[in-house]
Design goal:
Helix content is 31%, strand content 20%. The protein is an alpha/beta fold. Strands 1-7-4-3-2-5-6 form a seven-stranded mixed beta sheet. Strands 8-9 form a two-stranded antiparallel ribbon.
Length: 218
């Protein structure tokens, strides 16, 4: 932080200059916050606000999961709990893996949530499409293992709507509480969200060529 350098901090001139910078450079040079990079899609991200230590989630909180499936790339699964008092989302677990077939991923998911009541799961609706002339779809394969899903909204504009929803969730309310927090054991999600770049051709969306699998699940 600037205040860690008394020579520059005490003069006041350098601080005034930093305060005049854009949001990203100001956070980096004045506050020592290097989570956010230039061109990042989610400049609201603040590790001190959005990342928390794990706690025992009450059994009456609604829990659900979401998945972005990929075999050659990666599969990202996130688990959520909804605080009934302020509608805050708590992302309390992640699964990030590669080259795992749908059947095996289903069983990995069921092992992770054993003993929990998961109300529903959301999965990319394209996984219900038949891959070939015969046989079940990837979604049907997972459901057959007991890992149940509902299809995600893939209608026109849904990606932008999802991005706007995350912007809203990252904001804090009058009591300083954000609409979404992440357990600090969700290390891959915490690493990816603050550095996701904007799509250069569509600033209303993130760059889908970046590592965005956990973001897509989110």
């Amino acid at each position: 932080k600037l205040q860690d350098n008394p020579y520059l901090y005490n003069s006041g001139d350098y601080e005034a200059m930093l305060l005049s910078l854009g949001e990203v450079e100001r956070k980096q040079l004045l506050y020592g916050d290097w989570d956010i990079t230039q061109g990042a899609a989610f400049s609201e991200w603040n590790r001190k606000i959005h990342v928390i230590e794990p706690f025992d989630i009450p059994s009456d909180w609604t829990r659900f999961r979401a998945c972005d499936y990929g075999y050659g790339s990666r599969s990202g699964v996130l688990w959520f709990a909804v605080c009934p008092y302020n509608d805050q989302l708590v992302v309390y677990r992640e699964l990030y893996t590669k080259k795992v077939i749908a059947k095996d991923l289903a069983n990995m998911i069921l092992d992770e949530e054993y003993g929990e009541k998961i109300y529903y799961g959301v999965l990319d609706s394209s996984l219900w499409h038949q891959r070939g002339d015969t046989g079940p779809s990837l979604a049907e394969t997972m459901i057959a293992e007991g890992c149940r899903w509902r299809p995600a909204d893939r209608s026109k504009g849904s990606r932008v709507a999802g991005k706007n929803q995350l912007h809203r969730r990252l904001q804090v309310d009058d009591e300083g509480e954000p609409g979404i927090v992440f357990f600090d054991n969700c290390v891959n999600t915490i690493a990816q969200i603050p550095v996701l770049p904007l799509d250069k051709n569509n600033p209303e969306d993130v760059d889908s060529k970046s590592e965005d699998h956990l973001y897509d699940a989110l």
